[in-house]
Amino acid sequence: MKNITLLGATGSIGLQTLDVIEAHPDQFRLFAISFGENVEKAIPIIKRFKPEWIVVKNNAVKNKLTSVLNGNYHIISGLEALEEISVHPKTDVLVNAVMGSVGLEATLAAIEHRKQIAIANKETLVTAGHLVMEKADKYNVNLLPIDSEHSAIFQALNGESSNQIKKIILTASGGSFRDKSRDELQNVTVRDALNHPNWSMGSKITIDSATMMNKGLEVIEAHWLFQVPYSKIEVIQHQESIIHSMVEYIDHSVIAQLGTPDMRVPIQYALTYPERINLPKSESLDLVSISKLHFKEMDFNRFPCLKFAFDAGEIGGTMPTVMNAANEVAVDLFLKGKIKFLEIEQIIESLMNNHQVVANPDLQTIQSVDTETRIKAAGFKREF
Ligand SMILES: NC(=O)C1=CN([C@@H]2O[C@H](COP(=O)(O)OP(=O)(O)OC[C@H]3O[C@@H](n4cnc5c(N)ncnc54)[C@H](OP(=O)(O)O)[C@@H]3O)[C@@H](O)[C@H]2O)C=CC1
Ligand SMILES: CC(=O)[C@@H](O)[C@H](O)COP(=O)(O)O
Ligand SMILES: [Mn+2]
Predict the structure, then answer these.
(1) Could you tell me the pLDDT band of residue 163, with boundaries at 50, 70 and 90?
(2) Residue among 147, 273, 155 nearest 220 (CA)
(3) What number is the ipTM of this complex?
(4) Nearest ligand, CA 122
(5) Domain spanning 2-141: CATH 3.90.550.10
(6) 121: Cβ below 6 Å to ligand 2?
(7) What is the residue with the minimal CA distance to atom 11 of ligand 2?
(8) What is the pLDDT of residues 55-90, one digit of tens each?
(9) DSSP characters over 321-354
(10) Closest Cα to residue 163, out of 101, 97, 232?
(11) Does domain 160-263+287-383 have CATH number 1.10.1740.10?
(12) Sequence spans of domains, the chain
């Protein structure tokens, strides 16, 4: 029986992780959860799974939760509390499914405590991939990817050494606006942007898919997880999201992982690896009824955020931190209706262009660059 600590339980990955846990009561027990502010969504989860520990974003949420919850729960709040449950002696597996780089410190702490880590939270690897991987190496911890593309690559690699890889091929659906020209993007709405063609996900990642920043973040995530140079990472558009990604080897053999777009598959694999077990209520892939799969070259002029990410990754140092923090704030401003869709990329580009890179930054430098960038991005209207 594995005790699971689930960060981001009220989110899209969080809820699907709970489905997997519930499907296998003989294998998994929910030991602890965290969530941000959504008490209404958290209550039924807590009543159903009865986790011993609950971490929330701040004291106000803690007070609200305590006032409506009966039972013997440890309720704590804040970033340090996230670390506390992540390294708790009873935590066997940490599932990091929070949104944003807020997951970084908890991940680092869990690595130091040699926890098994299933990671969905790509922003952590983008903002400080070198620190996470250095620590994972030092403590001999395997980070098991949940992100569908990275789970696909992980499966396609099957332990092969990186000098046999010719390239990693990440597939991109194209997001909600894949058939629109840049001109047609001028006045798109939040509602339209949130309408992803293939996946039902949290709002931040859905906007990232529409700007193609999601694929940019995934390029950096792949670089760190699989220790592959950016020159060996390619992105192609594949509108059906059936091939989740591929690896081409030096002998030109290409190994791909396919399946219906269902995140419970990579979530469960990260929890049961190296075993595979039955996944109730998921569907077999029916290639005959799909009949055709489509592929297209990516266009950096149409999707500049993808280019920003390759540039940020190659430049390294604090540049990916700036790109990620600027993006997190810009997407939030867009979701709140304060900026237009195309202003997301303007904010990111402007902050990257004006950043003085610090090479090989330590955690403190990353945290201060992250904070400064967020402040600048939030003042977009005034500053630019
Ligand atoms: N959704 C998907 O299919 C996929 C997601 N991912 C990645 O997984 C991560 C989670 O994505 P997704 O589940 O879609 O996101 P959601 O927005 O659906 O959920 C995010 C979760 O994080 C919590 N949270 C947000 N901000 C904070 C904070 N400041 N402090 C503590 N908790 C916080 C939320 O709590 P609350 O809402 O209660 O405030 C919620 O539980 C992201 O990094 C995403 O890129 C990767 C592949 C696929
Ligand atoms: C499910 C998942 O892993 C998402 O990251 C998904 O890949 C988003 O799709 P696109 O970014 O390709 O639109
Ligand atoms: Mn993905």
Answers:
(1) confident
(2) 147
(3) 0.99
(4) 1
(5) no
(6) no
(7) 209
(8) 999 999 999 999 999 888 999 999 999 999 999 999
(9) HHHHHHHHHHHHHHHTTSS-HHHHHHHHHHHHHT
(10) 232
(11) yes
(12) 2-141, 160-263+287-383
